[in-house]
Design a protein that fits this description.
5-stranded antiparallel β-sheet, alpha+beta, Heat Shock Protein 90, 4 helices, 145 residues
Length: 145
């Protein structure tokens, strides 16, 4: 394993889409320091990007005055990402009711984030957060080399 990390890294991300890319770069840097390869890093970074972007777009007012919380836990062969939105955007029950294993019809221009995360992640869980928002947890486990 690479650099020693704390058991978890916590981020409070302002609810503005301008912060999505820096979050992605931070996750990439964390995993690069742990010796993950480029494909593994790309998959984990995409999960983080989709989780944070969805939280901002659908779970907040997108005004930068609220925060999305992201917890990153890196293990030797896995990463857990937990993202919680403030619950001031869309009704989070809509995301809970959607079946993430079903692709969105091609004629719909949006809505593929949950499906994409479902396909990439080893495990994905969604629940209502105590804040009233959506708590999304994804885990990516690395296969044998």
């Amino acid at each position: 394993m690479g650099e020693r990390l704390p058991s978890a890294v916590f981020l409070r991300v302002p609810s503005d889409l301008i912060y999505v890319r820096p979050v992605r770069k931070m996750v990439e840097a964390l995993l690069l320091g742990q010796g993950w390869n480029e494909e593994q890093i790309e998959d984990a970074a995409l999960l983080a990007t989709e989780a944070v972007q969805n939280a901002i777009e659908h779970g907040s007012r997108r005004d930068g005055r609220e925060f999305v919380e992201l917890c990153v836990r890196v293990e030797e062969a896995a990463v857990d990402l937990e993202c919680v939105d403030p619950g001031t955007g869309d009704d989070p029950r809509e995301a809970l009711e959607r079946d993430p294993s079903q692709p969105v019809p091609m004629d719909q221009p949006r809505g593929r984030g949950l499906f994409l995360m479902y396909r990439i992640a080893t495990r994905m869980d969604r629940r209502l957060a105590p804040s009233g928002g959506l708590c999304l947890r994804v885990r990516l486990e690395l296969g044998p080399p």
